[in-house]
Amino acid sequence: MNNDTQTIFSEFSDPHRRSLIDRICVAVGNHRIPRVKALGLWFADIKALEVLVGHERNPHMLRYMLVDFSQYNLPRIWASDVQASRSGQPRVLETRPDMGARGERSAAADISSRRPERGDRGRSGSPAQASTAARLRSEPRIPVPQASGRRKRILGDPTEESIRVTVTDREEARCVLTRRGGPSLEVAHIIPNRINRTTRDEHDGNSVWNFLRTFWSEEKVDAWEQALMPGGVLVSTERVCNLITLDLTAQDQWDRGLIAFRPISVNEEETEMRIAFHWLPFRSATIARNDRMPPAAVRDMGPGTPPSRSPGRFNYFFDMETLEVISSGHVFTVRTNDKEKQPLPSMELLELRWHLSRIAAMQGGADEDDDSGDDSDGGSFSVPSGSRSPVKRECML
């Protein structure tokens, strides 16, 4: 099989799913549902929908689970699309030796006072404008609570460098999607490193796990939780299984929510993983992310036709070995020669990001809170030409 049998909208064609959502929406009554949760219904596990249907005789419980919600940026934060604004988090200083006096960068505690200019709103402008604006910002937004003992990222950290050398060696210093070699390679995070070393309690406070458990089975969410927090307390993103090698453009498009990767399978020896590439639609700038939908609109949601060869704006990916255009559904393989020292990317983490990337892409992007545009997860590393040793990508001014 050379192409994925699923599309980014396959769930919408399932009649059983539609019938369950119909029953849930009828039970909710006239209460409007946040768009992020409406999309959660369409991408949810059938098991989770059946649990929700089980509460149809208790509309108060359903309204508690589906109507009351304020974390509209949650999919964007965890899908590494953009760093959410108005986080209200403490300042976090990061010293960059190569930036001199400008090396002290901070996330303002009251970032809500900063109103973006027209050309500074990321997705609302052209891709070129968004990219330029993102790299000119000096105050990256921190969307999640910061652990008090969180370790600062240090340029040249030998532990982090060795992890990235392991990843690039696993991928033979080539992009897993395009098969492009250096120098424009990045070791990208599946789940963004900006939530690294945050705690279970912090995410409980942000209703992250409640959101996930509403739409996906207990078994699945438990597996995601274990993959994210192997020690049971702190999120750990700095591991080989959470990293994958992409060329700079692919990593940038992934962070912007323009592409998604669906994990398909791993062989019995755990030495090969098959992953499908999919284009995502451009986020609508006319829909507010905090939009609430009447139940009738949730039941009638139609996603349209998924992008195939390109989502538009002359965006294409090419296979560097065949020089053919890479279309949605293209399946590529990640291999390892040592599953212990060079484990494959995590199926669980890829699946989590697959779901949240699709929600973020369809959620909208023009609510008043949207100070989007800072598109990087802050943890990608470039691989210079002629070297297997990754170094932190410098700011492009």
UniProtKB/TrEMBL annotation:
Q: Where is this region: Disordered?
A: 85-153, 361-397
Domain HNH nuclease intervals = 175-261
Q: Where is the composition biased (Low complexity)?
A: 378-387
Transmembrane stretches, start-end: none
The domain of life is: Eukaryota
Q: Which InterPro entries match?
A: HNH_nuc
Compositionally biased region (Basic and acidic residues): 93-123
- State where composition is biased (Acidic residues): 366-377
Name by which UniProt lists this protein: Genomic scaffold, ProqFM164S02
**What organism does the record attribute this protein to?**
Penicillium roqueforti (strain FM164)
Top-level taxonomy: Eukaryota, Fungi, Dikarya, Ascomycota, Pezizomycotina
